[in-house]
Amino acid sequence: MERWSGFFDLGTSDKPQPVTVRVVMNKQPVRKPFRIRVKPFFLIPAHVISPFYRRIWGFFRSGQIESMGLNWTPTQTGTMIIPAYTNPTVIKAVAAHEMGHILGLGDAYGAFYRYYYAAPGTDAYMMHSNRQVQPQEIRMMIAAHKSGRMQYFPKSWQTGRFLTGLAQDIRQLCHQIRRLAGARKKPRP
Ligand SMILES: [Zn+2]
Q: Cα 73 to chain center, whole Å?
């Protein structure tokens, strides 16, 4: 949460000067606490997920494939799932990115549900590269909490890009499964 707080130049008409943003977790009934689960396996990357029943109608509510996993509202922020990484720098960066989903933002990088299209100009964004929260992301966070709707980065469809991305994802998944299978066999004589 500390990465989402700080001094930001929002540049909006009602806030032309840089402002200090402080993200705090309010107690009920304003906002509910959220769960963080640490999973021992690395096959599935970190994500924020809604309970199963909420996932069914997520797509119909927003028209976004992304909401079939996380059907976000300010009071139903989902559960943060983090693989059991051992590197503290990685944990901090990943948790700060996932916090963005808890705060109501979609991904900006070329994920499967974005048809492998990275939102232009977002390379340094928290929701793209886990690097640094940008003023635009703060504006989106405020918009999400004002409207009660998750804020998504623009996406675009291109068949070639989608197929290349999909093939790469499948190759990577196969590689990870082989590695896990290999690691499991080792201890046996
Ligand atoms: Zn994400």
A: 14
